[in-house]
Amino acid sequence: MSAAPSLLQVDGVSVRYPLRRGMPGTRERTVDALREVSIAIPRGGRLGIVGESGSGKSTLARVVLGLRRADAGRVLWDGEVVDYGDAARLQGLRRDMQVVFQDPFGSLDPRMTAGAAVTEALQALRGPVRREAARMRVLQAFDEVGLAPALADRYPHELSGGQCQRVAIARATIARPRLLVCDEAVSALDVSVQAQIVNLLHDLSERHGMALLFISHNLAVVRYLCDRVAVLHRGRVVEQGSLITVFEQPRDEYTRMLLAAVPEPDPALARRRASR
Amino acid sequence: MSRAPLLEIRDLEVVFDTAAGAVQAVGGVSLDVHEGECVALVGESGSGKTQAMLAGLGLLAGNGRAQGSVRFAGQELIGTDEAALRDVRGTGIALLSQDPMSSLTPHLRIETQLVELLLDRGLATRAEARERALEALREVDIPDPAARLRQYPHELSGGMRQRVALAIALMGRPRLLLADEPTTALDVSVQARVLDLLANVRANGLGLLLVTHDLGVVAGLADRVAVMYAGRLVEVAPVDELFAAPRHPYTAALLAAVPRLRGDDGGRLSAIPGTPPRPGEPVAGCAFAPRCAHAVQACRDGRPVLRGLEPGTGVTVACHRPLAIEAQPA
User: Fold this and answer.
1) Which of A2, A8, A187, B315 would staple A41 via disulfide (CB 3.0–4.6 Å)?
2) Is any Cβ of chain B less than 8 angstroms from the Cβ of A18?
3) How many angstroms separate the CA of residue A193 from the nearest CA in chain B?
4) B167 to chain A, minimum CA–CA distance in Å?
5) B1 pLDDT above the threshold of 50
6) How far apart are alpha carbons B162 and B152 in whole angstroms?
7) Is B130 touching A (CB cutoff 8 A)?
């Protein structure tokens, strides 16, 4: 096949964490956080990673971002193996690959205004920018994520959770990354705000051809955002495929259990399930 | 209703004294819970749902004050002294909280935590209490209960911890269980079991007040649903009515914003624009009006009161312009 290489390819990645250390001289016990995980995202593609706590989904994000070394396997970017030890290459990769975490307050510096936080991200990723140009660019980013310009002078504690998450998204997307990693990025938000942020991520991805690696314990959210999905269970990908295939015709036992366990907002359906 | 409700909340108000002045977290809440009934109190963060629940038990933070009336089995709890409240807690009303890791005491064995209430109150001998503890663990489907009694909370999985917390709550044979987001911290695969156990609790005749933001959980468990927004009830309805034909625009918008596994095309989620008012922010008229697609001037001028709509439906709504039933698909 001579198709264009995937934007991101994770190839047989395994990660082991040491458990509590045993007696001196005994072998260290380990737990496999990831076992030979392989996933791929094409340019502009949106891959959902779903799994329960301890499935390894956050470890996968950390490996992709270079925050955790893989014990085996490799990560390819644009078809080339990524050397996370190469500082110069890593700086370029940081620009191309950004992340939004779960906790909207915790991911912002409490002493920095929203505007300063976004400006900082722009300068860190694009180098020095003239003041007026930076201001224009930051206001444009605010507009794009649905924040009023007046909020630029506010500190995180003066913003709602949804507004903080928009600031985090503005920071992550201002340098136009090609991939946005979202680690439970909408999980801490109220339902009404969660819907706004899901739609925002979808729009940004469409508008800029930005790929998404969307990690979530909430299967239903993934359905509104991703085109493909991979199910992680105890560090293994037990099933992956197009959204429709995995959700409508799950082949794996665990996937079926997971889908069946989601409490649906439909009383009649819930009663049918309970009487089964 | 013929029988008196187990829990009767009338015109409940909760105010917190803060550095920025008095902040009202809950206003004008009236709600009943009957024996064997599950009432869900639904709202987003800051809506006041948890404070409304804690007020009756005298468990507000030190700077919180409750006014109005909360009666349990006819006994007024608001303004009651601590000794009388202690008699109600555990044996009359029990509490199951969100995070079992913080509701369980980390350095005490499961047995100690299970029997504590009975021994403290002199309700049982140690041997009787231990028997009851084993029975309580069996009731919540804990395998090998005798071995569990010797264990510490950290030795159990998250789902098992929450089931142990439920067993502890049921030790005093309470008549009412207050459950605050009981499944929010759990993985979906273990959520279902905890929900089944709560359904059993209700089937055994206990009243259940379920505080949650999760409408999926509500659909499977509640008989009636009370929706809170900005500290006030906006709609109270039987569960089928509420999901099939929400009358308050906030209820309808909230239902529409829930991501689902089926039933729509998975296209765009229907979001509610804007954000709720912050606690303490002065609100003239309906607190939802600034975000409501149906709002007219009257909504901004006067606060709507909770009133019954069609007789016999059991639906009450606080809205100047409730959604018409005929607009809803059958």
Assistant:
1) A8
2) no
3) 7
4) 22
5) no
6) 13
7) no
B251: left (phi over 0), alpha (psi -120 to 50) or beta: alpha
DSSP state of A49: E
DSSP label at residue B89: B
For B183-235, give the DSSP string. TTTS-HHHHHHHHHHHHHHHHTT-EEEEEES-HHHHHHH-SEEEEEETTEEEE
Chain A partners of B268 at a C-beta cutoff of 8 Å? 199, 202, 224
Instruction: Give the pLDDT confidence of A134-145 residue by residue, as tens digits.
Output: 999 999 999 999
pLDDT-derived band of residue A24, with 50, 70 and 90 as boundaries?
low
pLDDT tens digits, residue range A98-127? 999 988 888 899 999 999 999 999 999 888
A154 touches B at CB < 8 Å: no
Correct CATH for A8-275 of 3.40.50.300, 3.30.56.10, 3.40.50.720, 3.40.50.620? 3.40.50.300
Q: Give the Cα-Cα-Cα angle A36, A41, A44 (nearest 5 degrees).
A: 165
Residues in A touching B252 (Cβ below 8 Å) = none
Q: B79 phi and psi, to 5 degrees?
A: 85, 0
Residue of chain B with shortest Cα separation from A197 = B271
Q: Is A224 in CB contact (< 8 Å) with chain B?
A: yes
Which tokens in the block code for residue B39? Answer: 């009432």
In angstroms, the separation between the Cα of residue A253 and the nearest Cα of chain B is 13
Of B187, B260, B272, Cβ closest to residue A192: B272
Judged by CB atoms closer than 8 Å, whether chains meet at B188 and A163 is answered as no
Distance, in Å, from the CA atom of A137 to the CA atom of B39, rounded to the nearest integer, reads 50
Structure tokens belonging to residue B64: 């919180």
Closest to B216 (Cβ–Cβ): which among A202, A259, A265?
A265
Q: Which helix (H) or strand (E) holds B71?
A: strand B64-72
**Rounded to whole angstroms, how far apart are CA atoms A251 and A256?**
7
Cβ–Cβ under 8 Å, residues B15 and B67: yes
ipTM > 0.90 (yes/no): no
pLDDT band at B326 (very low <50, low <70, confident <90, very high): low
Give the distance from CA A70 to its chain's centroid. Answer: 18
- Distant-in-sequence, close-in-space partners of B121: CB < 8 Å, separation ≥ 6: B90, B91, B172
Interface A:B, Cβ pairs < 8 A: 120
Q: How would you label B157-181 residue by residue, b for 16+ Cβ within 10 Å and e otherwise? A: ebbbbbbbbbbbbbbbebbbbbbbb
